Amino acid sequence: MRNNQYLKEKLDNIWQTYFADVPRRNEVNITFGRCARTRLGSIKLIQKSKIKNQNDKSKFKNLPSQIVITGYFKDGAVPEFMIDAVIAHELCHYAHGFSSPLPQLFKYPHQGRAVDREMIKRGLGDTLLAQQKWLRLEWKKIIGAPKRRVRRRRRVTFWEMLSFG
Predict the structure, then answer these.
(1) What is the tally of structural domains in the chain?
(2) Dihedral over Cα of 87, 89, 90, 91: its sign
């Protein structure tokens, strides 16, 4: 059964296997979130907004990091390597200093495909390729057809009708 405890065990296993050299400087929590179609996962520091001077990174030291995984991944039709790939992706952000007390290595989280390079360096290249292929071929079957926006006719104002002549 895929629940938050399942994710916690996955996180610990991936961290020990592929990220053993990355120190866990704060508590890292992981949960399923809402069913998001495009954002498969995210990582953030909890209660960061309550700190007055956000430029002082030493104040973030004791704040826990929160990883949220899309609720679609509770479905057994989603392969486990997809969950592994998303967790590893978020751990790459943590290792690079984004939403963690570690020093920030890049200006932007995905600068120069830093996350993909990190996953390949850590032996997760096959998982990354499998994830990209599965997303391209199977993801739409899980999330269903995209919602179409209904275009409404623009109302013509009284003054615009007068100018039609």
Answers:
(1) 1
(2) positive
Look up the domain containing 23 and give its range.
4-164
Q: How many other β-carbons are positioned within 10 Å of the β-carbon of residue 148? A: 6
Distance (Å, rounded) from C-alpha 101 to C-alpha 60? 6
Q: Which residues contact 135 (CB under 8 A, 6 or more apart)?
A: 82
pTM over 0.90: no
Q: Mean pLDDT per segment of 10 residues, for the chain of length 165 residues?
A: 95 97 95 94 80 56 90 95 97 95 94 95 96 95 78 71 63
Domain containing 10 — which CATH number? Answer: 3.30.2010.10
Instruction: Quickly list DSSP for 60-72.
Output: GTTSPEEEEE-GG
